[in-house]
Write a structure and sequence with these properties.
about 150 residues; mainly beta; Rossmann fold; 2 helices
Length: about 150
């Protein structure tokens, strides 16, 4: 099992749908201050069940939804999806690719999804039980040179 992709849309600074492809091994995200590196790890933590807005560097849940710029209107929802290759069957689900998604609307409505089927946070947590993956273990290391290293 490995993380194949992260898809973000409307999440913090990612207004447009953004797809980050990962290959087996180590992936490093490099960029200048303010380019959204931390928002990538926040997106991963959030979809894995992080409930603390303080941990996601916000004050209230609405803070994770793209708030707009001078040239662009704010969006009505935030979405983050993790896509895993499960061809080895390490996740207890009979799919070779597993997508876990979390969505939040400005209205306050929110939801979790496993392969596009609505589910509960409990279902997401149970899916990753005994895998070493969770909101408190997102396999990254912040280095002094502004790089995120994701170990898979």
């Amino acid at each position: 099992m490995y993380l194949k992709r992260l898809e973000l849309q409307g999440f913090k600074s990612f207004a447009d749908k953004t797809i980050l492809e990962f290959m087996p091994g180590i992936t490093t995200v490099i960029g200048p201050n303010g380019s959204g590196k931390s928002n990538i790890s926040d997106g991963i933590r959030w979809v894995l069940g992080e409930q603390s807005m303080k941990s996601l560097r916000g004050a209230k849940s609405e803070d994770i939804i793209f708030s707009g710029t001078q040239n662009r209107k704010s969006l009505g929802y935030a979405e983050s999806s993790l896509i895993f290759d499960n061809s080895d069957g390490k996740l207890p689900i009979e799919y070779s690719e597993v997508t876990v998604t979390r969505r939040l609307y400005r209205s306050g409505e929110s939801g979790y999804y496993i392969n596009k089927a609505p589910c509960r946070l409990k279902d997401v947590l149970e899916l990753f039980m005994d895998t070493g993956i969770g909101k408190d273990r997102i396999f990254y290391n912040w280095t002094r040179k502004n790089r995120w290293n994701f170990k898979q």
